[in-house]
Model the fold of this input.
Amino acid sequence: MQPRETQPRETQPRDYDAVLGGSSPSPTGAMVLGGLEGVKQRFGSPIATQRIAALLEARKYGQVELELLMQALHDESLQVQKAAYLRLQRHKDTIAQRALEMYDPYVLFECLGTLTGHMSGVTAVAISPDGRWLVSGSRDETIKVWDWWAQEAIFTLNARTFIYAITVSEDGETFAIRGRDQTVKAWILRTGQQIRPEKGALRAIASVTLTDDRHLISSSQNAIKIWNLKTGRELCTLKGHTSLVTAVAVSADKELISSGSEDRTVRVWGVA
Done:
């Protein structure tokens, strides 16, 4: 009697197989096992979603997580960088905070929302220190105070002058504008009550902002350009306005940018 032929055994993992952690990337769709070794294997995958999954799993592994997050800040994928950046923000470790200080988060910025309501082009914008309140001025000589968290206008004021610049006080209680002939006017932020302006209250620049000693943010036609001052290179361009950008402002923690445009809108930019 002839022996029955047997099929050769498959020795390579298939797409739906589970594989143990190792040094080579796993097949697409495969489940990687092996604890910390599996995390490291996924982090070495050529697939960005696998690397992000590795960062999420690495939360169990303390110092190893921190090391992977710091590596991920330099990943070729902005989505991987974003996952690492958001996670590092929750770390209180000195090393993590230092890594965030050295990182340029502006490459991750996108439009978080658009505020509409002005009847003419926007000429000046400002953000309160806590990032909640926005103040914008328009060519029609009106000022709008916005609750950014609610994404709505709280009230509108008549400035009775062209608005060249706006600034919010460091305590977030008041704001001031510079109008024609260097006129300075001030109001209480949450009520709109006009008050006597403090000396030196205005320190804003209309469409060019230095965020620190590393970055310059400026308007360029319908967009916002962000530059690294040390290298002289453009980091990124934020696009979304449909007409000339006339004003930019940055929050105290550098996590939000607001912009005003001749398209009569105020846009807010940040990491979603």
Summary: Residues 1-30 have pLDDT under 50 and may be disordered. The domain at 122-270 is CATH 2.130.10.10 (Methylamine Dehydrogenase; Chain H). Residues 112 and 269 are 5 Å apart (CA to CA).
